Amino acid sequence: MPSLQAFHRWEDEITKILGIVEIIVDGKKLDDLKASASVAIPDGAKVQVVFYVKPAIECVSRCYQLLRIELSDVLTEIPIRAFDGCCELRDVAIPRSVKKIRDEAFAGCNSLTTLTIPSSVKEIGARVFKACSSLTALNLKASLTEIPAYAFARCICLTNFTIPESVQRIGEGAFSGCSSLKSLTIPESVVEIGNRAFDDCSSLTRLAIPDSVKYIGGGAFAGCSSLDRLTMPMSLTQLGYDAFAGCRSLTNLSIPGSVTYIGCTAFAGCIALTSLTIPDSVREIGPFAFRDCRSLTKLTIPASVKTIRHGAFDGCSALTHL
């Protein structure tokens, strides 16, 4: 049987863990926190922890039997890896006093199904909810300016998501591997979409990227295999490597007149693409940019294009007019 030693790593520094004011095992409150370190927890027992002030970093990380937590309304920050790997955690209410949720705070909490992040939260950390694989509903009220790297990566049951209008940047891999994500709204406040931000969001069917977006990173929408309709921003100047590679359902594409460079493998593997318009703003087409676009039959390359790199149209087996 496991014990509660995870809560009490430093006996002489027990005050660091006095954020835990109650430990309840199968409905029975443990009054002596210090002694509770040696208490055996029966298999399948329900463990409830109530925090009053900031808990020690990692003090309950990977507590596999933790089912529910209550956070006091005086708590202002949830620290790094606070509940990382608490795979049975199903219920958590984040109080309005919380302003910051640090890196990996709830990563791997794969029994968590719904979550509301209140408007008081101004910052969330990298990988904060990564691999919360049962999370189906997320109400993000927080006034964030950035969704950081891999914040919601591999939340494979998340079906729709509305990005707050305060967000300016979507970080690397922020929603990578969210394979059930069907609906996504990107607000006009967003100016940058990072590398692999929506990589392998294989259920996403339609996407409108607002004109506010000036940069789309490498592989940002790679592997979005159900994406059949795409509106790109008129402010975009470059399409990075792998930007839409493997978007196998995309049938037609109009590249904005602001784009000057189409990067390496930007549309490689877009096997359903039949129609393509390259504007006269484009100066260079990168290596393997349209590799294996095997349904593409006709293409006009404007005189503005000065450089076509090797393999740009390699595998475009149906292309008869160029």
From TrEMBL:
It comes from the Eukaryota. PANTHER family: IG-LIKE DOMAIN-CONTAINING PROTEIN, SURFACE ANTIGEN. This is Surface protein bspA-like (TvBspA-like-625).
